[in-house]
Specification:
Layout: E1 2-3, E2 10-15, E3 22-26, E4 48-52, H1 70-83, E5 89-94, H2 96-107, E6 112-118, H3 144-151, H4 164-172, H5 175-191, H6 194-201, E7 205-210, E8 231-235, H7 242-245, H8 247-263
Parallel strand pairs: 3-4, 3-5, 5-6, 6-7, 7-8
Antiparallel strand pairs: 1-2, 2-4
Helix pairs in contact: 1-2, 2-6, 3-4
Length: about 260
Amino acid sequence: MIINDPDGDLHVIDDGPRGAPVLLLLHGTASSLHAYDRLAPLLTSRYRVIMIDLLGHGRSAKPDDAPYEIVDHGRRTGRVLDRLGVPRAIVVGHSTGGSVATALAEQRPELVRGLVLINSGPRLDAYTAPPLAIDPAAWDSLTDDQLRQAMESAFSRPGFRPPQELVEDLRGMTFRSFAAILQAAEGYLRAEPLPDRLARLGLPLLVIFGADDRRWLPSSAADYQVVPGARLKLLPGLGHTPQLEDPERTAEPLLDFVERLNNAP
């Protein structure tokens, strides 16, 4: 479905039983809701699963003059939940989606029952991938192979073939939105690391981290232990995108966390 937002139309998938607890899945920078194609089917039998193409991504609008700061993504995400009549959700964020989930919780804590961050880098100095050097003039002529090469560090092993849907969604971004979102993601972490933000919120937190992440220092996942009660699950042999590399292993700690929240008094 398409949800009209003041900043631009947002593509949303709303699946699973309507009376069930809600899981909101947020993708990372230069990705789309296709990042959850293999994980979502493991969740929808028991939960209502909502996925959003963040503005500038996937099938959502890509206005060059839109605000792309992380806080703006957070506000739009809250408006989507309002439009869908969702009073509370467990919010799952992959990579920069974890920053958007955190921004939503900072702005609208009443909407968030708990947070699950999947390979969300906690601080800027934990970033280990080489910077992307892309000529804006060449953006529209990048080949599939060049786009896959740019995406290679999102997976644990060289040669892992990114889903064609993600390649096409990256190609569909404008250079303006791509550059603005990268800058916004960096600026949010520069302003304050995620663990410090989350420690103030006091929300239940699960951090899932592929232990072979090639974008973020895997040992930096321990930074989240400053959050009271935070749970940390490292997944050996998996990289930056464990929900695509091994959705079953990723779903196991996620579902356990959700069940614990649902059974809490």
